[in-house]
Amino acid sequence: METFFFMIVAAVAILASILVITCKNPINSALSLILTFFCLATFYVMLDAPFMAAIQVIVYAGAIMVLIVFVIMLLNLRTETGRRTKHTVLIGSLVGIFSLIQLVYIFKHSSLTGSKGVLTPELIHKVGNTEIIGKALYTDFLLPFELTSILLLVAIIGAVILTKKKI
């Protein structure tokens, strides 16, 4: 049953990701990307990672996609959709094929290390994903977390300054 559900979600994810690329309307492309993000969140739930699924829905399918749709509507990209040329499609296809060949090569010629982490599945189920991630984030990775928050604050201030006509 789980395999059947995975196949259905995988088919929807592949179809939605193809629609992201092939849709001529940018809003339809963004909506297809949201569907792809929800499929990815479903995969996280199937992998027993509910915290990652919640973050996927809240951050990517929620906040980031609202921002992308807002920018699409602000820039009025509807007039730019018909300007695809043959050489850009050819270059994009070649880059995609090269990336796929490289990925297949890496997967065929690499092996898993077999090393085990300090967190066992029993400990994760006992303590919980969110608590383990929170402890690691605010103890071991406090400096990168704070630097990221400062970087985001600078980006917000820069976006406000760029959108203002007169200061």
Write up this protein.
With 167 residues, the chain is mainly alpha-helical. It has 2 domains: 82 residues, Up-down Bundle (Four Helix Bundle (Hemerythrin (Met), subunit A)); 49 residues, no CATH class. The protein is 78% helix and 0% strand. It contains 7 helices and no strands. The N and C termini lie far apart (60 Å).
Residue stretches low in confidence (pLDDT < 50, at least 5 long) are none
Give the CA-CA distance, first to last residue: 60 Å
**C-alpha Rg (nearest Å):** 21 Å
Specify the helix fraction band: over 70%
Number of domains: 2
Q: So how many helices?
A: 7
Q: What is the overall silhouette?
A: globular
Q: Please give the CATH class of the largest domain.
A: Mainly Alpha
Percent range for β-strand residues: under 5%
SSE pattern, N- to C-terminal? HHHHHHH
CATH superfamily of the largest domain: NADH-ubiquinone/plastoquinone oxidoreductase chain 6, subunit NuoJ
Summarize model confidence as the mean pLDDT.
83
Number of strands: 0
CATH architecture of the largest domain: Up-down Bundle
* Major beta sheet summary: none
As for the CATH topology of the largest domain, it is Four Helix Bundle (Hemerythrin (Met), subunit A)
Structural class by secondary-structure content: mainly alpha
